Amino acid sequence: MLRAASQRVFIQSLAAFVHQEVTLRGWVYRLRVLGKTTFVILKDCSGEAQCVGASGVIRELHLKAEDVIEVRGSVRADQRAKSGCEVSILEVRVLNRAAANLPFNAASDIESVGLETLLEHRPLALRNPLVGDVFQVQAALLKLFREYLSSQRFTEIITSKIVASGTEGGTNLFALKYFDRIAYLAQSPQFYKEHCVAGFERVFETGHVYRAEPHATSRHLTEYYSLDVEFGFIDGPEDVIQLERELLAYIFEGLQKSYAPILDAHRKTPLPQMLNAPCWEFEECLELLKEHFHRADLTDDLDPEAERQLCQLAKDKTGSSAVFVLGFPLGARPFYTAPRDAHGAANSFDLLFEGIEITTGGQRLHRRDDLESALRGRGMEPANFESHLRMFDLGMPPHGGFAIGLERLTARILDLPNVRQAVLYPRDRYRLTP
């Protein structure tokens, strides 16, 4: 039994307890037995510490990697140790034992472990820095997203994810039984954030959205986390694009400042300067693809190969591996999209970032009559959207916004080949557990 010991200390704080007795709790990350001395590398949420004890005492405990233990010991400074300190073990208590014959250990070479195995043993994988650091960066990304928008007078909103109909005409929806009728999981908070523009002017939301699309690719999910922004009194989509430039520049600067070692471990090049990201018209992009890659097969949208090619061109021409593409054909965009000109272009854009689309945004229609006409033009009945349309009778300013897929952005920032590596528990066409 351990005596009543000092309060538990996090490993990162050990330097403040040199020559004092402390209690540490964590997982056995590694064990090294050198004759009469055993080194227990202990890991908690703040870092790793080297604990040193007599091999005979440690041997009696039958410790192994991933066991959960409590260590009482005295702290001494040691610049050779990762934490700058070493702990001389006085007592050890096993709080819980890990199973034997785990498929890998937290200290394993994780690159040799398959993604499916990592997903099936998620908590264990997260204790490996190569995996866990992805979600530390993702958490920081979310924090910086909120910080910047809050500093620009945006209000964070929280809206329902159970809806009566889809935002884009009812396609790609997951249906669920809602008492005596059918409801759906929201594929976007688009309608709600537009409503809130009429109340707060500037709003943002972070939350899950759902797309019943039968993809099985390295870039698609059926449940993903969307970073949504909407604001009023804009003059055009250029205002929306500029806000996203500034937002991402702030996020990237913050990540580079606080997580440079992690970024360097994952990326070969620095994050792009988003304030320099060009904006090219869709028709211009088609001409560039034809000129440089002999592509003449695209008409109303871009395929994944075209996204990669345009990012490469942007990097060659401007030094930025990100490019905004503005003016997609109106017919390929949602009904609420504002037209760009009389020739069928839309005030809608995508942000292509290092070879993949991570954002869709643009200017919206803000007059009820225009929305009703747009719905009829697509063969949809305005009466089916009455609960949405009536909000435009309450004084809706010209507005626009965008949505960023958090997982895709994380994957690109850290140069991950599969978006599922940036999701704790992915949901795709085939995966519903754990």
Total number of beta strands: 16
Terminal Cα span:
37 Å
Per CATH, the class of the largest domain reads Alpha Beta
Question: CATH superfamily assignment of the largest domain?
Answer: Bira Bifunctional Protein, Domain 2
**What's the CATH topology name of the largest domain?**
BirA Bifunctional Protein, domain 2
Poorly predicted segments: none
Total helices: the number is 12
In helices, the fraction of residues equals 25-40%
User: pLDDT average, as an integer?
Assistant: 94
The arrangement of helices and strands along the chain is EEEHEEHHHEEEEHEEHHEHHEEEHHEH
Q: Compute the number of structural domains.
A: 2
Biggest sheet statistics: 8 strands, mixed
What is the beta-strand fraction?
25-35%
Form type: elongated
Cα-atom radius of gyration: 26 Å
Structural class, from helix and strand content? alpha+beta
Strand order in space, largest sheet: 6-10-11-16-15-14-13-12
CATH architecture of the largest domain: 2-Layer Sandwich
Notes on the structure:
It is built from twelve helices and 16 strands. The protein has 434 residues and is an alpha+beta fold. It has two domains: 86 residues, Nucleic acid-binding proteins (OB fold (Dihydrolipoamide Acetyltransferase, E2P)), CATH 2.40.50; 297 residues, Bira Bifunctional Protein, Domain 2 (BirA Bifunctional Protein, domain 2, 2-Layer Sandwich), CATH 3.30.930. The strands form three sheets. It has an eight-stranded mixed beta sheet, with helices on both faces. Strands 1-2-3-5-4 form a five-stranded mixed barrel. α4 packs across α6, α4 packs across α12 and α8 packs across α9. The longest helix is centred in the N-terminal third of the chain and has 23 residues.
